[in-house]
Design goal:
175 residues, alpha+beta, four-stranded antiparallel sheet, 5 helices
Length: 175
């Protein structure tokens, strides 16, 4: 628990809410962890308030997540954090040198996790892995932590809409 009373568990709920998973995925995950949607939203707002600008958001985030840090490099400017909801991923954060804001933050595959095979499905593929399966990739929206793409599947010749949150595939729909 940090001085602002937040723990990695609350930050995990913040990540879950802000990645905006499809309702069926969200309901399944909330059921698995015994959390209501109302509680998730409340905890997410607490985290949002704690890390909100002005300057210092990155330092406050680092303080919240220090107990789940798994990796550190570049004098601590790049760190990875592990969360129970995403055992195959680590949340990688690149901090500004003055610890005031983020340069980049997204999920990456954990070192011990195997890359997925087969057809991309929500919550099993990361952005780079999924986009590599398609051709004629067109970025539609880049509003972090969300990204959407229009892609061509070379196997069936159909176009698909892909949506990512924090680089985790959330949605795939035929266009």
């Amino acid at each position: 628990m940090t001085q602002n009373g937040l723990s990695p568990a609350e930050y995990q709920l913040y990540l879950l809410e802000t990645m905006d998973p499809p309702p069926e995925v969200l309901n399944r995950i909330l059921g698995e962890i015994g959390c209501s949607q109302e509680r998730m939203e409340q905890e997410s707002e607490r985290v949002r308030s704690a890390i909100r600008m002005p300057a210092g958001a990155a330092g406050r985030t680092r303080d919240i997540l220090k107990d789940v840090r798994t990796h550190q490099e570049q004098d601590g400017l790049v760190e990875r954090y592990s969360f129970p909801l995403w055992p195959d991923y680590e949340f990688e954060v690149e901090y500004h040198w003055a610890w005031e804001f983020f340069m980049r933050h997204a999920f990456v595959r954990a070192p011990e996790s195997a890359s997925p095979t087969g057809q991309p499905t929500p919550w099993t593929w990361l952005k780079d892995e999924a986009l590599a399966q398609y051709e004629d990739v067109k970025e539609l929206t880049l509003w972090l932590p969300y990204e959407t793409y229009d892609v061509l599947n070379p196997k069936d010749g159909k176009r698909y809409f892909l949506r990512f949150g924090w680089h985790v595939l959330q949605e795939i729909d035929e266009m």
